[in-house]
Each structure stands twice: as structure tokens, then as C-alpha cells.
Ubiquitin thioesterase OTU (Aphis glycines), 308 residues
Amino acid sequence: MSDVVLRLKCRSGTFPMTIPLNCSISILKEQVSILSEIPVDSIKLLFGFPPKTIQKLEGTIEDAGLKSGDTIIAEVDSTSTSVQQLKVKTESNTLKHVTEQEVGNEVPLILRKVVPADNSCLFTSLGFVLGGKIDLTSGNYMREIIANAVKDNQIEFSEAVLGKPNEDYCEWIRNPNSWGGAIEVSILSNFYGMEIAVIDTQSGSISKFGEDKDYPHRVFLIYDGIHYDPLYLESPANPEEIQTLFPTNDDRMLDAAQMLANEAKSSRQYTDVNRFTLKCLDCGCIMIGQTQAQEHAKLTAHTNFNEY
């Protein structure tokens, strides 16, 4: 039985979910409860447009009509007896992610969270800004999300855009050794319904993916030519609480990100992709720069590279 890749939206954030098609709604609610921090008996699940409540609570995901790419919304059931206790808890979680007061009136001091330097750093970084923690399994979900989006829109994602046939790209992006870049960021921005601002430390510029979609929230990543890390703020009152999601109508975080980009550029905190050395772990070939690596990948289908 195949799996279904869903997007969960709730007050504590937005999360990817991969579950079997024959999974029961009751088990789905248990998994949603863990991510949303809403008690199982207080969850109301909605999906579709306009969102409608899932009525067949005794059936399976398939019975409910859910399919890969769908967004499910978890809300508090107003008829639940535990709503008052839950309200306090969810409001606390909301403050963690979206609060203008945490940014303050001055340009904030933005911080960088270093994630593992593997071929999934983009996905791990996005997982951090979505969930507030490093989850090395994020890449598995997100690669599947991207592959499904590309497969379902072969006109937009043509060979000219992808640099390879659509089917080959889908197989390539599912490989854990494949790097993510602008195409993948754009797809994930659309899937999660948020603007993704990427700071390029080599050029000092900021690329805002999804800025034309009027998304309410923005997250920040920093890119040094070969590696992505997420950016965040610490709560002034509690350093253990972090803020990773910011209103798109507040440019103070953009100002802070631009200051960071300028500083990183002036101190040369980047890797020149035209000059760095890579080693192919499949055949041992040594390459100079991104262009040689791309040509080697086309000729050999090897994609397992490390900086050398």
C-alpha cells in the first residue's frame, strides 16, 4: 500500500506528514495530536477548499478522500470539555513562533543554527524553521513532496527548467545524496504556504521565494554557496524559546538579515562554487567547481559528492 504525503496546519506550526493510505482516521488523529499538541479528543480535522470537517472518523485516509499533496487543518473542537486548558497551551505555543513583541522596536539580533553539512542541509534547515528543532528525517518528507509536485506539473517543470527529463529529476531528488536549490525552495514555499527568504553570503543579496503570493509569514535561511542553515531569534524572556516564523509585513527581520548578509560577504563567509574542489564518492574523480560537478553527474549519473 502506497504512502500519502500530507501537509498539516495547526496553531503550533506547519508540518509534513507521510502516512499509509490505509491508515485509520483515529491513528491519523493520534499523529496530528503529537505535532499540534492538541489532545486527541479535542481535535477537529478539516481539508479541502473551502475547508470541511472530516466526517468519516471511523474510516481510513482513503475513505475520507485524502490524497498526496492535500492540506489538513487541525483545530480545537469547541464542544470538547478540555478546550479551556488547551487554549492556554496553544496560545503559549503561538507566542513562540509569531509575535511582533519578540522582535521588538529595534533591528533584532538574528542568530544562525548550524545544521549537519550533509546533502540534505536545505531540508533540515526548513524542518527547523517549521518545527523549531533539528530533524534529520525532514529530507525524506520534503524530497517526496518535491517529486510529487514536479511529476504532477510536467508543463511547468519541463526538461528545460529541470536540466533533465521530468521522470529522471523525480528519481534524482528522491536520492538522499542530491542537493536542493532554488527549484526545491520554490516548490516548498508554495507547498507550505510561506515566504522563504534566502540570504546569499557571496553576493550579499536576499532572494524571497513566494513573495508574490502574499503569504502572511516569512522564514529565513542563509546560504554560503554549498550549505544552508536556518536563522532564528531567541526570546528575550526565555532563551529556550525561539522564533522562526515572522510576519511578512514587518521588515525589521529583513533589515537584520541584510546586515548579516553584508557582514558575511565582507568577511568572505562563503564558498566560491566556481573554484571549490569536490570528490565523487562513487568513482573518486576530483572536480573543480560546480560546472565540472554538473558535467560529471550528467555523464556518469553520479551524484554522491563531498567537498575535498
